[in-house]
């Protein structure tokens, strides 16, 4: 089944070239089925690139998905045309009285910034709190995962001495959990962050189910027991070249970054990297949509109630 996106969204042509089933909004309005409504809060500077990456993963599902894009505020963007933002992105005030089946909050390049110094921190906290009563399941990615741990569990920011960058091996902890169903015992996933997600620290200070862990990168995947909050500390949405572009950017800025681990063939940046995490990324998003969203969400979103999930979990 397809994802439904606006007819003129730039990602449409990219995804069609990859033979991904994308349904234009004009056609979807004639179908008599109820699509899942998924909201993406895009915090990344290069919004067109990021939205395309997430739409690619959301498309690999038998479910029809109605995607809407959300911006955190109305400040001008240095990396995305204002025309694009005005055409395809909603402001929070427009959606705050509605309910959604799923919400994805992306990462943000704020690893060394204290939460209280993030210009939109209070607004992000409002969105996270709003999701409790308006969203069936929320997926927090990379920086957003640490921000949600702070907002939901009051965990302080934990910063690594060195940036974690590269492709790391992870071990699946619970193969029969809905989110890890079909996962291999070990799998690869990219990371690009300064945040620290120590397994023991999270186990001692939260009630999260810790589902996948790396010896080098720490916790990769965790969720609340009701599956309404899912934390992904890496970047399953990344394209093969994304880490390369980040590394080259830091080199050009004179930051002397470490070369991404286990990424370039023969550890040579002159060699084109290959994606070794696509199958895992697609399976993770498919499981989230199926088990955390589709099988838990009410058919009539107007009947959404947090009490329903509390009672079901009990």
Automatic annotation (TrEMBL):
Compartments, as annotated in UniProt: Cytoplasm
Superkingdom of the organism of origin: Bacteria
Uppermost EC category: transferase
Active-site positions on this chain: 142, 235, 237
Site (Important for substrate specificity): 192
GO biological processes: L-methionine biosynthetic process from homoserine via O-succinyl-L-homoserine and cystathionine
Annotated keywords: Acyltransferase, Amino-acid biosynthesis, Cytoplasm, Methionine biosynthesis, Transferase
Site (Important for acyl-CoA specificity): 111
Pathway assigned to this chain's UniProt record: Amino-acid biosynthesis; L-methionine biosynthesis via de novo pathway; O-succinyl-L-homoserine from L-homoserine: step 1/1
Pfam families the UniProt entry points to: HTS
GO MF term set: homoserine O-acetyltransferase activity; homoserine O-succinyltransferase activity
Function (record text): Transfers a succinyl group from succinyl-CoA to L-homoserine, forming succinyl-L-homoserine.
Protein's recorded name: Homoserine O-succinyltransferase
Gene name for this UniProt entry: metA
